[in-house]
């Protein structure tokens, strides 16, 4: 029993690290993957670099998105679309409807 009490702090530390660091990170990665898979034509998006535009087409071959901006059409990887900024951009549009 004495040996178990010696390992209790280490076990507790691993549990804290899992529930406060690893699990939320895995949950966020899953949400971003679902977000990228659910993109559709006409969605207004913001890239992680700050480029605003509207999705006009997809390139399944390259796993990319073609975005129309004020400067023209640009191709981005699906992973470069910012989930947080895009959701903030589209919230007021949904609230008006």
From TrEMBL:
* Keyword Hydrolase attributed: no
Q: What InterPro entries does its record include? A: Preprotein_translocase_YajC (IPR003849)
Look up and give the membrane topology term: Single-pass membrane protein
Q: Which residues form a coiled coil?
A: none
Q: Does the keyword Protein transport apply?
A: yes
Q: Which family does it belong to?
A: Belongs to the YajC family.
Provide this UniProt record's keywords sorted from A to Z.
Cell membrane, Membrane, Protein transport, Translocation, Transmembrane, Transmembrane helix, Transport
Q: Which organism is it from?
A: Christiangramia fulva
The subcellular localization recorded is: Cell membrane
| Ranges that cross the membrane | 6-22
UniProt superkingdom: Bacteria
An example GO biological process term is:
protein transport
Q: What is this protein called?
A: Sec translocon accessory complex subunit YajC
**Cellular compartments per GO CC:** plasma membrane
Q: Where this protein primarily resides, as one coarse class? A: membrane
